[in-house]
Automatic annotation (TrEMBL):
Residue ranges of domain Aminotransferase class I/classII large in the record: 64-406
Superkingdom of the source species: Bacteria
Cofactor or coenzyme needed: pyridoxal 5'-phosphate
Keywords attached to this entry: Aminotransferase, Transferase
This protein's name: Aminotransferase class I/II-fold pyridoxal phosphate-dependent enzyme
Lineage, opening ranks: Bacteria, Pseudomonadati, Pseudomonadota, Alphaproteobacteria, Hyphomicrobiales
MF terms in GO: transaminase activity
InterPro entries named in the record: Aminotransferase_I/II_large (IPR004839), AON_synthase_class-II (IPR050087), PyrdxlP-dep_Trfase (IPR015424), PyrdxlP-dep_Trfase_major (IPR015421), PyrdxlP-dep_Trfase_small (IPR015422)
Transferase keyword on record: yes
């Protein structure tokens, strides 16, 4: 048909050859960090190249470091039984599912893993995604909509925030673990929305503390929201037998509407899952974009996660050892005047530093002395609350923990004396 109205103005741009993203304004922020580090002569600790299997130790530039930077909580990455399960699955299935499970990528091992996850939680069913991050983005983004409200903890993981943003729902944040503040939001605003989702984590990866899940369940029953718990860091870590934050808090798994977790920590693989009612799982499996339009999880990853569940069930002493290690770290750190914030002595212990560059500097000093612990800086944590984060594993010995704490306290003192003025806990 003939076009009516005035002719459109055609804008043409000259195409520059070479790197067409070199002028991207956002690149500046990325490069500033490196420039500042170069200026003051601090080695950038990110993307450091480690070799070998990440366990209680790791190889770095030909040296063996005591490793506190990996999620290998129960020491199952590299466990012969786990590796053998993955190898057997590769022999049987190849390395890829080769299609979305909806079309031709479904394998028995996928359903076997999902059954194991559902049994672990005592819920109807589970669905496994290829990435933990994509699980939150896809599940939250797909479940919630414009007239809904999503309320989450101020320290909620980026994937929860991105999922909430994507959903188009209204978002509210409450101060970390402050359930009074959450209740206030629900009272003031909850009624104005069609559906309300409250998202928390089972164990917070920045502070190493966990929410009062029993109170959250009571609030759920009172205010009627959907309660979602991200167990990325609490599965196999909290609770006497590794039953997660529900076991830790004496809560029935069925009283949480949406269990989310990852395979990248205790389960030594990669991927994520949602576990819950039959309707929830059915809805996501048949319509969540991150599942429907994405390849099925590599069968070897499913097989190794199943092997991890076997070991978790058979050897609860690993969970006990991990907890003993966490308590040991916190006790030693406090005795040396280090500030561990609200850490409760689990698999994650932060040592609070404050200034980002100081945290980076301290991490570099530690690495020189054989201890691998990474600094966590803004924007992963709020400005001026940089920290060194220690991930413990059941495979660490008390000697390794004591050594790491002693080196940290020593270097911390030296930096303070040198005028870095690092924040110390009140003695
Ligand atoms: N949720 C939480 C709480 C996390 O800490 C992470 C990442 N560490 C994720 C989700 C994403 O999981 P993954 O790294 O397995 O993609």
């Amino acid at each position: 048909a003939a076009r009516s109205g005035p002719a459109p103005t055609v804008v043409t741009r000259k195409v520059k050859r070479g790197d067409r993203f070199a002028d991207l304004p956002e690149l500046k922020d990325v490069r500033t960090q490196q420039a500042v580090a170069d200026l003051i002569g601090v080695q950038n600790p990110f993307f450091a190249m480690h070799d070998g299997c990440a366990g209680a130790t790791i190889a770095y530039e030909g040296r063996e470091l005591i490793n506190f930077a990996s999620y290998n909580y129960l020491g199952l990455n590299g466990h012969p039984e786990v590796a053998a399960a993955a190898k057997a699955a590769i022999d049987h299935y190849g390395v890829s599912a080769s299609a979305s499970r909806v079309v031709a990528g479904e394998r028995p091992i996928h359903r076997e893993l999902e059954r194991r996850i559902a049994d672990y939680y005592g819920v109807d069913d589970a669905v496994a995604f290829v990435s933990g991050h994509a699980t939150n983005v896809s599940a939250i983004g797909h479940l919630m909509r414009k007239n809904d409200l999503i309320v989450y903890d101020a320290l909620a993981h980026n994937s929860i925030v991105v999922g909430a943003t994507l959903s188009g729902a209204t978002r509210r944040m409450f101060a970390h673990n402050d359930l009074d503040a959450l209740e206030e939001i629900l009272i003031q605003q909850g009624h104005a929305f069609e559906r309300v989702l409250v998202a928390v984590e089972g164990l917070y990866s920045m502070d190493g503390d966990f929410p009062d899940l029993a109170r959250l369940v009571k609030m759920r029953d009172r205010y009627g929201f959907w309660l979602m718990v991200d167990e990325a860091h609490s599965l196999g870590v909290l609770g006497a037998t590794g039953g997660g934050v529900a076991e830790e808090c004496g809560v029935d798994h069925k009283d949480v509407d949406i269990w989310m977790g990852t395979l990248s920590k205790t389960l030594s693989g990669c991927g994520g899952y949602i576990a819950g009612s039959q309707s929830l799982v059915e809805y996501l499996k048949f319509s969540a974009p991150g599942f429907v339009y994405s390849v099925g999880m590599p069968p070897a990853v499913a097989a190794s996660a199943i092997a991890c569940f076997d070991i978790l069930k058979r050897e609860p002493e690993r969970v006990a050892k991990l907890r003993a290690n966490g308590l040991r770290f916190v006790e030693q750190a406090k005795a040396r005047g280090l500030d561990v914030g609200t850490a409760s002595g689990t698999a994650i212990v932060p040592v609070m530093i404050g200034d980002s560059l100081r945290a980076v500097h301290l991490a570099n000093r530690l690495r020189e002395r054989g201890v691998n612990a990474l600094p966590i800086v803004h924007p992963a944590v709020p400005e001026r609350s940089a920290r060194l984060r220690f991930f413990l594993t059941a495979d660490h010995s008390f000697e390794q923990i004591d050594e790491a704490v002693a080196v940290t306290a020593d270097e911390h003192d030296k930096l303070a004396k040198a005028g870095f003025g690092i924040k110390m806990a009140a003695a």
